[in-house]
From TrEMBL:
<feature type="transmembrane region" description="Helical">
    <location>
        <begin position="319"/>
        <end position="337"/>
    </location>
</feature>
<feature type="transmembrane region" description="Helical">
    <location>
        <begin position="182"/>
        <end position="202"/>
    </location>
</feature>
<feature type="transmembrane region" description="Helical">
    <location>
        <begin position="119"/>
        <end position="140"/>
    </location>
</feature>
<feature type="transmembrane region" description="Helical">
    <location>
        <begin position="349"/>
        <end position="367"/>
    </location>
</feature>
<dbReference type="Pfam" id="PF07690">
    <property type="entry name" value="MFS_1"/>
</dbReference>
<dbReference type="InterPro" id="IPR036259">
    <property type="entry name" value="MFS_trans_sf"/>
</dbReference>
<protein>
    <submittedName>
        <fullName>MFS transporter</fullName>
    </submittedName>
</protein>
<dbReference type="InterPro" id="IPR011701">
    <property type="entry name" value="MFS"/>
</dbReference>
<feature type="transmembrane region" description="Helical">
    <location>
        <begin position="284"/>
        <end position="307"/>
    </location>
</feature>
<feature type="transmembrane region" description="Helical">
    <location>
        <begin position="415"/>
        <end position="434"/>
    </location>
</feature>
<feature type="transmembrane region" description="Helical">
    <location>
        <begin position="214"/>
        <end position="235"/>
    </location>
</feature>
<feature type="transmembrane region" description="Helical">
    <location>
        <begin position="94"/>
        <end position="113"/>
    </location>
</feature>
<feature type="transmembrane region" description="Helical">
    <location>
        <begin position="373"/>
        <end position="394"/>
    </location>
</feature>
<feature type="transmembrane region" description="Helical">
    <location>
        <begin position="476"/>
        <end position="494"/>
    </location>
</feature>
<feature type="transmembrane region" description="Helical">
    <location>
        <begin position="63"/>
        <end position="82"/>
    </location>
</feature>
<feature type="transmembrane region" description="Helical">
    <location>
        <begin position="241"/>
        <end position="263"/>
    </location>
</feature>
<feature type="transmembrane region" description="Helical">
    <location>
        <begin position="152"/>
        <end position="170"/>
    </location>
</feature>
Length: 515
């Protein structure tokens, strides 16, 4: 038998072994979704118990901030690294590695004796969460073709939405009943169930890529993204925004970014294949993801302040208003995903999604302290429709356009830039709020260092504070409008490529057959 015939036979066997029954495929998908639940719960369940944690550990506001920031930072910078590893190694083993790392870090975080130890273990937990997001998304591509993947977009979006929105509520209940440490143990049963389901159902061939890892690129990407994320987290608190420390951190971050481009153009297996950006679909998907990340993370972060300060609502009432966004996200993701899978026509829907994004951000930019709540709810629902329509489909389009040996990197790119842009936006826009409030603290009767409790303010002062915060938060969303306009243009210019009807495993096998 010739080498070509042997390779063909091997590829055919790989395709046959990848052809699961529908029941096995769904079981494997449940295992993968459980991993995605872990990543969502990791960031949200502890939010309501942070004051209790810091009090028990004897820590202050700086530690409070870094318990959140450490996890967010390592999750973001590890996305690209995990994505590239998917192009080199077994996806199943990488998923097990991410879950194992997440479990170990969660267990250690729950046992932390000091705030410093807790921050360190939260950073390690973030690396595991980045793996769950990147590798989990690639596993879904292994299991389902781009044409069929839309059917499950609603499920994926719903799972992540439930984990994100329900995490704080669940975390508060666990803290009251069992103590804050049990928030870190919560994900362990999910992790064990995910490993069992994936071990029983997945038998996927490993990628054909070489095992050469771009360590220089990994260090440079981590340094560049990490430095700029750290800067927006600590600037304005530990040192002024306009200071030599800020100049040094931003300059070093830009230098690392430039060095990354130089290195990635020369190495054999780049962490971020720059050639992907020459693909018109992938480059426009990244542009759209940046705008989406800024809006989808900024809206929940700052609209809670709008409702509770500018409108004097309780935390529970504020949360119920935010639910309009999560509900519309789930509905839009489910309906649009089903329609795209049945018809194969995706472009009108992503254009509609960015149109909703643009119109909703324009509406939010007009907020005042007297804007009808029904209208505000409509703006939030519009953001939810945009998120539900775009988030999963942007990733599918990137995967649909990527060559089989670059699938992992192409999957991680939209998530990496979406997360990075959103995180930077929250830091910068939060600083804008603090600066404007401090400048007008005399008129508003508050300071830039504390968040006012409007229920304790007298009538004239309360009205001044509410008007001030409403105007500031409305102005913040003006920053989102140009980004949304660029995203709309990017989706209009997307090449109208048909969605593939074969899975990633089949694509890799066919690529081998054609050689």
């Amino acid at each position: 038998m010739s080498i070509r015939q042997e390779r063909s036979a091997t590829c055919a066997d790989s395709v046959d072994s990848a052809e699961m029954t529908r029941r096995r495929m769904l079981t494997a998908m449940v295992g993968t979704l459980l991993g995605l639940v872990l990543s969502a719960l990791a960031s949200t369940t502890i939010l309501t118990s942070l004051p209790v944690m810091m009090n028990e550990l004897g820590a202050g506001q700086t530690a409070y901030t870094w318990v959140i920031t450490a996890n967010l930072l390592t999750t973001t910078v590890s996305l690209a690294i995990w994505g590239k590893l998917c192009d080199l190694f077994s996806h199943t083993r990488l998923m097990f590695a991410a879950i194992g790392l997440f479990i170990a870090a969660s267990l250690c975080a729950g046992l932390s004796p000091t705030a410093e130890a807790l921050i360190g273990f939260r950073a390690v937990q973030g690396i595991g969460a980045g793996g769950l997001i990147s590798v989990g998304s690639v596993l879904l591509a292994d299991l389902v073709s781009p044409r069929e993947r839309g059917k499950y977009a609603g499920v994926v979006g719903g799972v992540i939405g439930v984990g994100t929105m329900g995490g704080p509520v669940l975390g508060g209940l666990i803290t009251d009943a069992l103590g804050w440490r049990w928030n870190f143990y919560l994900g362990i049963p999910f992790a064990v169930a995910s490993v069992i389901l994936l071990h029983r159902t997945l038998d996927l061939p490993s990628p054909r890529g070489s095992a050469r890892i771009d360590w220089a690129g990994a260090v440079l990407v981590t340094a560049s993204a990490g430095l700029v994320m750290t800067w927006v987290s600590v600037a304005g608190d530990m040192f002024p925004w306009w200071s030599w420390q800020s100049v040094a951190m931003v300059t070093t971050s830009l230098g690392c970014a430039i060095a990354t481009i130089v290195v990635e153009r020369k190495v054999a297996e780049p962490l971020i294949p720059l050639g992907l950006f020459t693909d018109p679909t992938i480059s426009r998907v990244v542009i759209t993801s940046v705008s989406l990340g800024v809006t989808m993370l900024s809206v929940p972060a700052f609209m809670s302040q709008y409702f509770q300060i500018a409108r004097g609502m309780s935390p529970s009432a504020s949360g119920s208003m935010i639910l309009a966004m999560s509900a519309s996200t789930f509905i839009a993701s489910t309906v649009v995903g089903q329609v795209i899978s049945r018809t194969g026509r995706w472009k009108p829907w992503v254009i509609l999604g960015t149109a909703f994004l643009l119109s909703a951000t324009v509406g939010l930019a007009t907020l005042t302290s007297t804007t009808p709540l029904a209208l505000v709810g409509g703006y939030l629902a519009g953001v939810g429709v945009a998120v539900g329509t775009l988030m999963s489909n942007m990733q599918i389009l990137a995967q649909n356009s990527a060559p089989p040996d670059k699938l992992g990197a192409a999957t991680a790119l939209p998530a990496f830039f979406r997360q990075l842009a959103g995180t930077l936006a929250i830091g910068v826009l939060g600083a804008v709020i603090a600066t404007r409030v401090s400048k007008t603290s005399g008129a508003a009767g508050s300071t830039g260092d504390t968040v006012p409790d409007v229920s304790k303010l007298s009538g004239p002062v309360r009205d001044a504070v509410q008007t001030l915060y409403a105007d500031i938060i409305g102005d913040l969303f003006l920053w989102c409008v140009p980004l949304a306009a660029v995203a709309f243009l990017a989706t209009v210019l997307l090449p109208n490529r048909p969605l593939r009807t074969n899975t990633a495993v089949q694509q890799r096998a066919e690529s081998l057959l054609s050689e």
